[in-house]
Amino acid sequence: MLRTTARSRIISQQSKKVLALSIGQLLNTIISIVIMMVSARLLSMQELATYRQSLLLFQVATPFIGLGMGSALLYFLPVETDRRKSILIESLIVCTLSGSVIALALYLGGGTLIANTFGNAELSNVLFLIAFLMLFAAPNIVINSFLVVANKVNTLSVYQVVTNLLVGLGVIVACVYFQDPFWMVAARVALLILGAFIALKIMFSCVTTLPCNPSIKSSTDLISYGLPLSMSMCVGMLTLQLDKIIVSAKTSPELFAIYSNGAMEIPLIGIITSSVCIVMIVPFRKAFSDNELSSCIEIYHKVSEKISFILLPVMTYFALVATPFIIVMYSEKYIESALPFLLYLLIIPSRTLLQGAMAAVGKGKILLRNSVISLVLNGCLTFVLVNQFGYFGAIIATIIVLYCWDVMISLKELSSSLKCKMTELYPKKVFTKLALCSMLSSAPIYPLLFLINKENAFLQLVVVALIYFPLYLLLGIKLKLFSEEMLSFINQNYDKIKLKLRPIFGSSKW
User: How distant, in Å, are the alpha carbons of 218, 309, 446, 470, 491 from that of 473?
Assistant: First the structure.
C-alpha cells in the first residue's frame, strides 16, 4: 500500500513537470507548423529544400556538439551541489569547443562539400550561417538539464515559450518580407544566439553565490560520462534523419522538398507519447528495481493501451484525409507529398511501445549496439531502395527495418529482462480491438469524402473529424472494444468536460 501511494505521488510530481515542459514543446510545434505553411506557399521548391536541409544538418550536428553534457549535468549536479557553477562552466566550454570544431570543418570546405553532395549550390552560403550558430549552441543545449536539476521548471517553460515565439516570429517575418531561405536562416541564427545569452544569464543567476573552480579533471569526468550517451544520441539522430539525408544526396532539391513535406510525424504525436512515457517510466523503473516484474508488465500494458487509444484513430483519420491535409498544410503545389505522408503513417503503431523501457531495465549498452545495427541496416537498405524506387524507397526501408529489427529486438530483450514471452509483453488483444474499432469507424467516411466539396480541403478535415472521432468512441463503447479501465478513463474525462461547460451554457442537463 505504501509503495503504491509513493508511486502515485511520484507520478503526480512528474506529471506537473511534464505539463510545464510540454507547454514549450507544444508552442514550438505550433510555430513550426505555421512556418511550414507560410514557407511552402512563399518559397519555390528549391528554396524550401534549402531551408529544410540547413535545419536538417543542424539537427544532426546538435548531439555531436552536446557530447552528452545534458545527461552529464543530470548525473553530476544533484550530487555535487557546491560545484554547480564550476560544472556548468565546464559543460559550456566542452560544448563550445566541440561546436567550434564542427563549425571550422564547415568553414574549411565542409559546407561546400555538403552542398555539392546535395546538388544544391544555394545551401553553401546558408551553411556558413549554421556554422556561426554552432559557436553559440552550448547554452541552449545545457539549459534544460540545468534548470530541471535546479528545480526551475517553470522558469524553463517561460524561457522556452519566449524564445520559441521570438524565433518563430522572426523566421516568419523574414519569410514574408524577403522570401529567401538565407534571410530566414539568418533570422533564426540571430535570435537563437540572443536566446543563448538569455540562457546564460538565467543559469548563472542560479549559482551566483557558489565558488567557481573549474578543472580539467572534472571536465574529463563530464566527457567520460557523457560521451557514451552522446554516441547513442548521435546514432539515434542519424537513424531518425538518415532517410532525408540520403534522399537529399540521391535526388533533386525539388524532390526532397516534396518528400520532406510528406515524410513527417503528425504534429503533437511526439508530445503525447513522450509525455505519457516520461510519467510512466518512473514507476516502471521503481517496480523493476523492486523485482516486481508482473507490475512492470502491467505498466507496460497500460502505457501501450493509453497511447494506442489515441494514436490508432489519429492514424486512421489522417489516412482518410491525407490529401486535404497536405493541401491545407502546403497548398496544392505539394499534393504529391500526400503519398509519402500516407506511407509514413505506418510508423505510428511502433510509437505505442513504452519509450525508455530498455534503459530502465539496465540494457543501455545493448540498446546502443542495437541502434548502431539499425543505423547500418537502414542506411544500406535505404541506399539500395532509393536507387530503385526514388524517395519512396526511403520510406519502405525505414518501415522494414523498424518492424523487422527495431521493434522485434526491443520486445525480445525486454521480455527476457521481465522473464516473460514476447507475446505476453505487448497487449495484442487490446491493440487488435482498438485497430478494429478505428477501421470500422472509417468505413462510412469513404463514401462521405466523395460528397464533400473537394475544393475546400479545410472543410473536409473538419467534417471528417466531427463524424469520425465520435463514431470511434460510440462503436468502441457499444461493441465493447474498450477495456474497463479505458471506459472509466473516458467517463471521468467526459464528466470533467460537462462540469466545465455547464457555466457556459447555463444548463445542468446534457
Answer: 56, 10, 18, 5, 11
Residue 82: helix, strand or coil by DSSP?
A: helix
Confidence of residue 399 (pLDDT cuts 50, 70, 90): very high
Identify the helix (H) or strand (E) that includes residue 365.
Answer: helix 364-389
| 105/363 Cα distance (integer angstroms) | 35
**Cβ pair 135, 151 in contact under 8 A:** no
| Contact between residue 306 and residue 14 where contact means Cβ atoms under 8 Å apart | no
Please state the separation of Cα 385 from the chain's center in Å: 26
Provide CB contacts within 8 A for 142, sequence distance 6+.
66, 69, 70, 73, 88, 91, 92, 95, 203
Q: What is the mean pLDDT of the chain?
A: 84
Distance between CA 253 and CA 391 in Å, rounded? 12
In order of 166, 354, 408, 431, 485, the CA distances from 304 in angstroms are: 36, 7, 15, 8, 13
Residue 482 DSSP symbol: S
Q: Which three cell numbers stand for residue 174?
A: 523574414
21 vs 154: CA distance, rounded Å: 8
131-154 mean pLDDT: 88
Looking at the chain, the whole-number percentage of residues with pLDDT higher than 90 is 40
Dihedrals phi, psi of 292, to nearest 5 degrees: -95, 75
User: Per-residue DSSP letters for 458-481?
Assistant: HHHHHHHHHHHHHHHHHHHHHTT-
Q: What is the pLDDT of residues 422-448, one digit of tens each?
A: 888 887 888 888 888 888 888 888 777
Instruction: Encode pLDDT of 340-359 as tens digits.
Output: 999 999 998 888 876 667 77
Give SS3 for 421: coil
Q: Looking at the chain, how many residues does it have?
A: 510
- Does the pLDDT of residue 508 top 60, yes or no? no
Distance CA 460, CA 327 (A): 11
> Cell digits for 27?
508552442
Q: What is the pTM of this model?
A: 0.84
What is the distance between the terminal CA atoms of the chain, rounded to a whole angstrom?
Answer: 38
Name the residue with higher pLDDT: 484 or 335: 335
List the grid coordinates of 236. 539515434
- Exposed/middle/buried for 263, CB within 10 Å: 0-12, 13-18, 19+? buried
How far apart CA 199 and CA 160 sit, in angstroms, is 10
> What type of residue is 198?
I
Grid cell, residue 373, equals 545495427
The sign of the CA dihedral 102, 103, 109, 115 is: positive
What pLDDT band is residue 99 in, cutting at 50, 70 and 90? very high
Distance CA 239, CA 234 (A): 8
For the beta carbon of residue 489, count every other beta carbon within 10 angstroms: 15
Does residue 115 have a pLDDT over 90?
yes
